[in-house]
Specification:
Structural class: alpha/beta
CATH architecture: 3-Layer(aba) Sandwich
Shape: globular
Strand content: 15-25%
Number of domains: 1
CATH class: Alpha Beta
Number of strands: 8
Radius of gyration: 17 Å
CATH superfamily: NAD(P)-binding Rossmann-like Domain
Distance between the termini: 38 Å
Order of helices and strands: HHHEHEHEHEHEEHHHEEH
Length: about 250
């Protein structure tokens, strides 16, 4: 690690739980972020600032004026541009040492299957139920930990789905693929601006802990945030032995 890196990451290195060895793990890690919007913005910014070695950003959309109320990675000047390109510029400005890859497309099953071999942690920051299920399926098959967040109106949630642990559920254990919830979109229901910052920053924190090998992640736990009352609720998440996604994988192992 060069002197400039030691200085840049000095506040991490001072932490006993991280130190130089842990920071080197962060610098050598590759994070995949699905969605460069409200959740993906703070998550990507914190991961880049923390020194994550590579970030792959996936999002098919362009920056809209209505995004700027909460998607802090984008600027007014980037309205009409690709979200991943806009976000990439912001990340490089914060930390030019982080290598940023951009994919302006939906994360479909085939692409995910080919990509996850090079990924250390996945952050699901999208707002599409089908995409969430596809990401979860790919993570289970590749045994890559998944940090999932969601936010709408004043309500947020976050959990870690780590298929490397036998007792841990996957996303489909908690949200079955054949039981899709009613569509919820910020464009019709609204979202409290700082809420996505809170959840997205927590996703970055959980991703870094997974890279560092810190055991106290949100695996097997779901945190629910009532942002209006600022109250947290924790739910314990058991693995579903009949889950159509992770049960066959567990049997094969």
């Amino acid at each position: 690690m060069q002197d400039t890196e030691l200085l840049r990451y000095s506040r991490h290195i001072l932490l006993d739980e991280i130190g130089i060895e842990g920071q080197e793990r962060i610098c050598g890690a590759h994070a995949l972020i699905i969605g460069a919007g409200g959740l993906g913005a703070p998550a990507a910014l914190y991961l880049a600032a923390a020194g994550i070695g590579q970030i792959t950003l996936v999002d098919p959309d362009i920056v809209d004026l209505t995004n700027l109320q909460r998607q802090i990675i984008h600027t007014t000047q980037n309205v009409g541009r690709s979200k991943v390109l806009s976000a990439s510029e912001s990340l490089k400005a914060i930390n030019p040492l982080t290598e940023v890859h951009t994919v302006q497309a939906l994360a479909d099953t085939a692409w995910l299957a080919n990509k996850l071999a090079t990924i250390d942690v996945v952050l699901d920051c999208c707002d599409n139920f089908q995409t969430r299920q596809a990401v979860n399926l790919a993570c289970v098959k590749a045994r890559v930990p998944l940090v999932s967040g969601a936010a709408i109106r004043f309500d947020g949630q976050i959990s870690v789905y780590d298929s490397r642990a036998e007792e841990a559920p996957c996303y489909a254990c908690v949200f079955p693929p054949d039981d899709a919830p009613p569509p919820t979109q910020c464009s019709t229901m609204g979202v409290f601006s700082p809420l996505v910052g809170v959840i997205g920053a927590m996703q970055a924190a959980e991703a870094l802990k997974l890279v560092l090998g810190i055991a106290t992640t949100l695996k097997c736990r779901l945190l629910l945030l009532d942002g209006l009352r600022m109250e947290w609720t924790e739910m314990r998440l058991p693995r579903n032995p009949a889950c159509p996604v992770c049960a066959p994988t567990q049997t094969a192992n």
